[in-house]
Amino acid sequence: MLKSVVRAVGAAVRMSSATTSTARALPLSCPTLCSPCSATTRPFTRSLWMLNSKGASSGYRPKLFSSKVLQPTVSCGCGGLHTEGDKAFGDFLSDELKEEKKIQKNKTLPKMSGGWELEMNGTEAKLTRSVSGEKISVSFNVNNSIPPNFEEEAEQGQQKSAEEEPEIVSTPNFVVEVTKQASKHSLVFDCHFPEDEMSHGEGEEESDIFAIREVSFQPEGDTDWKETSYTLNTDSLDWALYDHLMDFLADRGIDNTFADELMELSTAIEHQEYIKFLEDLQGFVK
């Protein structure tokens, strides 16, 4: 009788082990992360911060999941392809345009003090003025003039509210050209806005918000910088000579006040061009 009981208990243990083994093998054929027996669902890996348009500055939030399969619709006869994705893209651009026009500060371009005249050619801008027979021109392009904003919070995937978002400011490189009467060459300064304000000495009350990168004599009227002309790089330049060059520009109206106004003007131009690009993109998608 005792042997019979032992055999019965052993059989029960073996049946329990077989049931456990079968249960553990189930995830290999039907993962628990997916819906039962689904072959199309997969884990969502893209971060919400990356899917948002301009982070927290935009009220638009994309639809993360959709049960519809995006298929091309019938052509409307315009010769272009129309899809559900195009429609969603167009709706997004409409919302984005509303937001950008709402925060646009300058409907018209701000004026530069000092008698500067502005000429525009797409994204290129040129300011000119004459002082005692000298012609001074300042040229810049707003393309790639928005410095990147890399912050630890962004790297960690943290979002900021619209009030905490840093203001977007255009800081383009600009070229100053000074031409004297009866001169075959112009003195040309290649300038930029450094990330940190430059200071040339201790005890200075105000530091320069822009810096000279290179100086060269170039043939008057030439739009391209000739590499065969000697170019003075200021990285290893004596500070005294550098200060005289900065004073030379300041005497002709290229100082911190001018640089501030230039950034304001460039920011307004860049924003106008961005809005125009969105409008053109919306029309192209539709």
UniProtKB/TrEMBL annotation:
It is found in: Cell membrane; Cytoplasm; Mitochondrion matrix; Nucleus, Nucleolus. Signal peptide: none annotated. GO terms for cellular component: extracellular region; mitochondrial matrix; nucleolus; plasma membrane. Keywords: Acetylation, Adaptive immunity, Apoptosis, Cell membrane, Complement pathway, Cytoplasm, DNA damage, Immunity, Innate immunity, Membrane, Mitochondrion, mRNA processing, mRNA splicing, Nucleus, Phosphoprotein, Secreted, Transcription, Transcription regulation, Transit peptide. One of its GO terms (biological process) is innate immune response. Belongs to the MAM33 family. Residues 143-168 are annotated as: Disordered. The keyword Chloroplast does not apply. It is a peripheral membrane protein. This is Complement component 1 Q subcomponent-binding protein, mitochondrial. InterPro entries: MAM33 (IPR003428), MAM33_sf (IPR036561). Pfam families: MAM33 (PF02330).
